C-alpha cells in the first residue's frame, strides 16, 4: 500500500472510471478511481487529498496511481478560480495567492529554486564567501532619489538599492565575497523588467580588474544556465519550452566599448543606450554583449574613471536587456574622496566606506546580477512580475 498526497487539478469520467489529474507539488500524477472505491468527502478541482493505492501504468504505458481509498482533506468548490482551462498571464497576476497552483507557475517557482541553488553552488565552488549586507542603510549606492525611506521614532534610513558598498567592506577582509539579497528601487517605472523589490547577487573580488570581473560574470552566468537546464528538464516541459537555453552558453560573448557602439549604431556620444537600442545591438551580434567603458558622467561615484570613461560594463541579454552592471572600483583614497565629494555624498555618514581605502587598499572589481531578469530569460516570461511569487512594483 502506497500513499499519494496533493491537490486535484482536473476530473474526467470515462467508462466507469474517474481520472483525476493531480499534483503533489513537485510532480503531476494521474489518479485512477474505479467505481465503488471508498471516497471520503467531495472531490473537486482545487481540493486537497490523501489517496491510498498503488503506482501502476495504464494500458497505454502512462504512469497512474490506482486508488483503493480516497480522502478529501480540504474541500473546494466551483468558485475555485484556477479551473482546468487556459488563463491569461494578466488574470494570473490578479491572483498571486493562487497562481502558484497552475502548472506554469509551479514550474517557474521550481526553476527559481534551481537558479538560486546553482548560484550558491557555483560561487562556493570558486571560493566566494557569502557575505551579509544590511537591508536598512543610509548608503545610496547608485545615486540620489531612487530609494524608499524607513522611518520609526528612533530611526531614519533607507532600504538598500545595492549591497555593493558594504560588500566592498567584506571583500577587504575576505578577498572574494558575494551578497544574495533583496534590493529596492523607488523609481516609478512601469516597464516589463522593473520591480521595486528584486533580488541581486553581488560578487566583489580583491586583486581583480575590469576584464577579470567580466570573465567571472560570463563564466558564472554560463554555468548557471547549464546547471538550471540540467536540473529542470521536467519544468521546461511544463512550460512548453523545448529549445536549449545553453546554446548561448557555448559561444563567446563579445565585449565592445561604448565609443565603438556609438559609432556603429549612430548613438550620440554621452547619451544612455535605450532598451530598444540594446536589443538591436544584441541581435546584430547574435549573442549577449558586454558594453564597456561608458562615459564617466553616466556612472556612479564609486567607479574607477579616467578623464573620459568609467571602467565599467553592462551585460546585455537577448529579450530582457541588462542583466548585469559592474565595474572596477576606485581604490585610491584621495581620488575616491574627490569623487564622493563631487557626488555630494554626506562625508560624515560615508566615512566607513572611504576608510576601506585607507589601510591595505587593493584594486578590486565586482558586479550585480539581476536574479529576476536572468530568470525571466530562462523561463521566457513576458513580464518580470511572472517570475517572483509576490511582485512589488509601481
Ligand atoms: O546596474 P545596477 O543598478 O548595479 C548596481 O546596483 C551595482 N551596485 C552592482 C554592483 O556593481 N555590485 O543593478 C544591477 C542589476 C541590473 O543589471 C539589473 O539586472 C538588476 O540589477 N536590476 C533590476 N532588476 C529588476 N528590477 C529593477 N528595478 C532593477 N534594477 C536593476
Ligand atoms: Mg545598471
* CA-CA gap between termini: 52 Å
Largest sheet: 8 strands, mixed
How many helical stretches? 11
Mean pLDDT: 96
Helix amount: 25-40%
Number of strands: 17
Please state the oligomeric state of the protein chains shown: single chain
Q: Rough shape?
A: elongated
CA-based gyration radius:
25 Å
Question: Which strands sit side by side, in order, in the main sheet?
Answer: 7-11-12-17-16-15-14-13
The amount of beta strand, in percent, is 25-35%
The poorly predicted ranges are: none
Each distinct ligand: 4-amino-1,4-dioxobutan-2-aminium adenosine-5'-monophosphate, magnesium ion
User: Helix/strand/pairing class, anyone?
Assistant: alpha+beta
**Which series of helices and strands comes N to C?**
EEEEEEHHHEEEEHEEHHEHHEEEHHEH
Describe the protein's architecture and organization:
With 394 residues, this protein is of the alpha+beta class. Helices cover 29% and strands 28% of the residues. The chain has 11 helices and 17 strands. It has helices at 89-94, 96-99, 103-125, 164-174, 210-231, 233-238, 258-265, 275-285, 333-342, 351-354, 371-379, and strands at 2-14, 17-23, 28-34, 39-40, 48-57, 63-74, 129-130, 136-137, 149-151, 156-159, 176-184, 197-206, 255-257, 289-292, 312-317, 321-328, 364-370. It has an 8-stranded mixed sheet with strand order 7-11-12-17-16-15-14-13. Helix 3 packs across helix 5 (210-231). It starts with a strand and ends in a 15-residue tail after the last helix. The mean pLDDT is 96. The structure holds 4-amino-1,4-dioxobutan-2-aminium adenosine-5'-monophosphate (4AD) and magnesium ion. Magnesium ion is lined by residues 314, 322, 325.
Amino acid at each position: 500500500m502506497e500513499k499519494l498526497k496533493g491537490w486535484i487539478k482536473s476530473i474526467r469520467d470515462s467508462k466507469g472510471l474517474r481520472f483525476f489529474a493531480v499534483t503533489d507539488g513537485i510532480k503531476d500524477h494521474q489518479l485512477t478511481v474505479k467505481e465503488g472505491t471508498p471516497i471520503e468527502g467531495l472531490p473537486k478541482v482545487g481540493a486537497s487529498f490523501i489517496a491510498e493505492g498503488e503506482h501502476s501504468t495504464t494500458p497505454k504505458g502512462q504512469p497512474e496511481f490506482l486508488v483503493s481509498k480516497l480522502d478529501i482533506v480540504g474541500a473546494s468548490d466551483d468558485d475555485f478560480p484556477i479551473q482546468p482551462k487556459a488563463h491569461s498571464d494578466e488574470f494570473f497576476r490578479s491572483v498571486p495567492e493562487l497562481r502558484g497552483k497552475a502548472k506554469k507557475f509551479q514550474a517557474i517557482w521550481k526553476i527559481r529554486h534551481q537558479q538560486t541553488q546553482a548560484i550558491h553552488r557555483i560561487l562556493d565552488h570558486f571560493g566566494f564567501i557569502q557575505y551579509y549586507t544590511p537591508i536598512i542603510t543610509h548608503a545610496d549606492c547608485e545615486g540620489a532619489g531612487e530609494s524608499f525611506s524607513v522611518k520609526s521614532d528612533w530611526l531614519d534610513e533607507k532600504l538598500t538599492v545595492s549591497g555593493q558598498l558594504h560588500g566592498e567592506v567584506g571583500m577587504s577582509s575576505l578577498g572574494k565575497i558575494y551578497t544574495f539579497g533583496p534590493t529596492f528601487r523607488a523609481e516609478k517605472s512601469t516597464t516589463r523588467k522593473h520591480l521595486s523589490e528584486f533580488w541581486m547577487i553581488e560578487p566583489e573580488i580583491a586583486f581583480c580588474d575590469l576584464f577579470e570581473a567580466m570573465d567571472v560574470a560570463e563564466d558564472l552566468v554560463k554555468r548557471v544556465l547549464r546547471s538550471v537546464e540540467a536540473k529542470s528538464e521536467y519544468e521546461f516541459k511544463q512550460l512548453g519550452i523545448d529549445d536549449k537555453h545553453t546554446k548561448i552558453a557555448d559561444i563567446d560573448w563579445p565585449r565592445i566599448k561604448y565609443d565603438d557602439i556609438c559609432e556603429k549604431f549612430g548613438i550620440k556620444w554621452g547619451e544612455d543606450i535605450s532598451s530598444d537600442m540594446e536589443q538591436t545591438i544584441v541581435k546584430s551580434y547574435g549573442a549577449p554583449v558586454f558594453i564597456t567603458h561608458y562615459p564617466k558622467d553616466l556612472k556612479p561615484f564609486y567607479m574607477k574613471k579616467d578623464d573620459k570613461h568609467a571602467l565599467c560594463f553592462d551585460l546585455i541579454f537577448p529579450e530582457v536587456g541588462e542583466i548585469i552592471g559592474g565595474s572596477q572600483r576606485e581604490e585610491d583614497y584621495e581620488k575616491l574622496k574627490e569623487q564622493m565629494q563631487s557626488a555630494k555624498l554626506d562625508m560624515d555618514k560615508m566615512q566607513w566606506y572611504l576608510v576601506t581605502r585607507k589601510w591595505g587598499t587593493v584594486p578590486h572589481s565586482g558586479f550585480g546580477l539581476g536574479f529576476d531578469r536572468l530568470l525571466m530569460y530562462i523561463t521566457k516570461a513576458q513580464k518580470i512580475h511572472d517570475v517572483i511569487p509576490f511582485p512589488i512594483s509601481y
